[in-house]
Amino acid sequence: GGSGGHLTPAMALAGYLRAEDRCFMISTRRPVDQILSAEGGALLEWETVGLQPFTPAGRWFSPFFVARQLRAAAHIRAIIGRTRPDVVVGFGGYLSAVGVVAAWSAGIPVVIHEQNVLPGQANRWLARLADTVAVSFPETVRYFLKGAAVETTGNPIRLRAGALTAEQARTELGLDADRPVLLVMGGSQGSRMINQAAVGMWRRMT
After folding, report:
1. Cβ(41)–Cβ(23) under 8 Å?
2. How far apart are CA 143 and CA 115, in angstroms?
């Protein structure tokens, strides 16, 4: 995705697993992926691939697009063949779909993780191939097929060394120490609506 909502929790899990054994990350070359891979590349084994979003459907009429997608899919399969993972974990999105299918076809155990309450289309489809589905919220379980191995695990978060305290953050942002602070944040498809609603509420209150 374009916001890093799939990639950030994947990085959190990779950082945790890296302390125990080898962990390899695959991402696209979209701007947010490039930024995060540059940040995490020093700590994690990481490779980017040139896969593009599958939609709109009209782009599949272009032979250049189809050829590029096939090259990217072959690249992902080659990475899986080269690294020989014990398990592949997909965090949603179009790249995850290709990686999970490649792992499944090679007989490698697959886990998928869903960050949102309402699962994305990729994860709903990939759940049929996964050995286990991990979800962030109990309410999400009902969106997957009955009989699927679904576990409520929560959403992995990254714990950074040297993070600012609340007092330091107020100082950095120039906020009054005696006034309450409200943080409004949203991601994925609802972020624009949440931001617009928060700004509208602020204007009405001030």
Report:
1. no
2. 13
pTM (predicted TM-score) = 0.79
pLDDT at 157: 86
Three-point CA angle 143, 147, 150, nearest 5°: 60
- Decide: residue 19, CB within 10 A, 0-12 exposed, 13-18 middle, 19+ buried: exposed
Backbone conformation region of residue 168, classed left if phi is above 0, alpha if psi is from -120 to 50, else beta: alpha
Question: Does residue 152 surpass a pLDDT of 60?
Answer: yes
One-letter amino acid at 133 equals V
CA dist 92 and 14 (Å) reads 15
- By CB atoms closer than 10 A (0-12, 13-18, 19+), residue 25 is buried
